[in-house]
Design brief:
With 180 residues, this protein is α+β, with helices and mostly antiparallel strands. The chain contains 5 helices and 10 strands. The strands form 3 sheets. A 5-stranded mixed sheet has the order 5-2-3-6-9. A 3-stranded antiparallel sheet has the order 1-8-7. 40% of the residues are buried. The model is unreliable at 1-13 (pLDDT under 50).
Length: 180
């Protein structure tokens, strides 16, 4: 486990800060309205939303999904859903014309997203990673997400997010199963 943590720590110190700087540069270039929210290191949606003080519905939960589209072909989607929901793998599979959909391995997800799990941005900087956002999330005035770092989030005006990220929108969220 410490070997895995070392990999994450190395990744975090270089690529993650690079992704953060790339994001801030992109938002500034487009004149987007955002604010930085610093908090204790946390990657779980519910816990980090409590630290930031936002409702779960405003949190952009970002999951990299692998979709098999043929015997040897795969596509990857960055599925972004509200924090109070989960990704509907069947919907993503159908949307991308696949025969199977599942969560990408952490290594693949982190490589494509440019940051570690728990800090994945709702933006795609890799042509292999198609950005798909559930339209329910876009009903919020402001979105919150970890900014490629566990200790820093952004609150971004939704209209600016749509203008800058230019996501494909499709109903890809389902209600989260409560653990009662």
């Amino acid at each position: 486990m410490s070997e895995h943590q070392t990999t994450h720590e190395t990744y975090t110190t270089h690529e993650t800060y690079e992704a953060y700087e790339k994001l801030i540069g992109l938002l500034d270039e487009h004149g987007a309205s955002y604010r930085v929210v610093e908090h204790d290191p946390e990657g779980a949606t519910e816990a980090v939303s409590a630290l930031r003080g936002n409702r779960l519905e405003q949190a952009a939960k970002c999951i990299v999904v692998m979709v098999k589209t043929g015997k040897r072909t795969r596509r990857y989607a960055l599925a972004v859903v509200p924090g109070d929901r989960r990704v509907d793998l069947g919907a993503v599979k159908a949307l991308l014309g696949g025969t199977y959909a599942g969560f990408a391995t952490p290594e693949v997800a982190e490589r494509l997203a440019g940051s570690v799990s728990g800090t994945i941005l709702p933006f795609s900087f890799d042509p292999e990673l198609e950005l798909v956002v559930d339209p329910v999330l876009l009903e919020e005035d402001e979105l919150f997400f970890n900014a490629a770092r566990l200790d820093r989030s952004l609150a971004l005006r939704t209209a600016d997010y749509v203008a800058v990220a230019r996501p494909r929108t499709a109903p890809i969220a389902e209600a989260a199963v409560s653990e009662a």
